[in-house]
Amino acid sequence: MALVSGCALAEPPRGLVPSAVATPTPVADPPVPAELPPLSPDFQASMASSQLQTYRYSQLAEQALALKKLCETGFGPPDLCPKSGPAGSSNAAIASPAEFPTVLAIDGAGSALAAILALPDGRRMRVRPGTILPGGLIVTAVTGDDVRVRIAPGREEHLAFGEGPVR
């Protein structure tokens, strides 16, 4: 390959004469930074505490969101979930019979009876005595011919048999 005369890459810049022997220029190593002093135990403890508080807060936020979702579906704990009632009323209103679940079937034998209920929103639910229904109703008894729920302290209601709400 031939170099072209007058090309910037073919000739050294004018005024510079190449030396016969090139001497390398020594390069110094970068300076070593001074060692940092160790962190004080108080600072380490406060950082760990801050990280722990951040973790606990995120856990509480997740639990609150999960509880909110449970309350919205009606399956949250009745002592933590607010009852939806008319505005301005201090006592939760007792649900009307039209808002009660209907009994679709009762099956089992002896003390192992269970019932399948149709909830007002169309869902179906298998229940036994002690089951808490959406809205705070508690199943108190399942017998061969009826299902009873507690709607208020000392007040029970027999659930009607039916096909459930039509969707």
Provide structural commentary.
This protein is α+β, with helices and mostly antiparallel strands and 167 residues long. The protein has a domain at 97-158. Helices cover 20% and strands 18% of the residues. The chain has one helix and six strands. The protein has one helix spanning 41-73, and strands at residues 102-107, 114-118, 124-127, 138-142, 147-152, 155-158. The strands form two sheets. It has a three-stranded antiparallel β-sheet with strand order 1-2-3, with no helix packed on it. Strands 4-5-6 form a three-stranded antiparallel β-sheet, with no helix packed on it. Strand 4 (138-142) and strand 5 (147-152) form a beta hairpin.
Overall mean pLDDT score? 78
Ends apart, CA distance between termini? 87 Å
- The biggest beta sheet, please? 3 strands, antiparallel
Structural class: alpha+beta
Helix content: 10-25%
Strand residue percentage: 15-25%
Number of strands: 6
Order of helices and strands: HEEEEEE
List unreliable stretches of 5+ residues.
85-93
How would you classify the quaternary structure? single chain
Count of alpha and pi helical runs: 1
User: What's the overall geometry?
Assistant: elongated
As a whole number of angstroms, the C-alpha radius of gyration is: 40 Å
Strand order of the largest sheet: 1-2-3
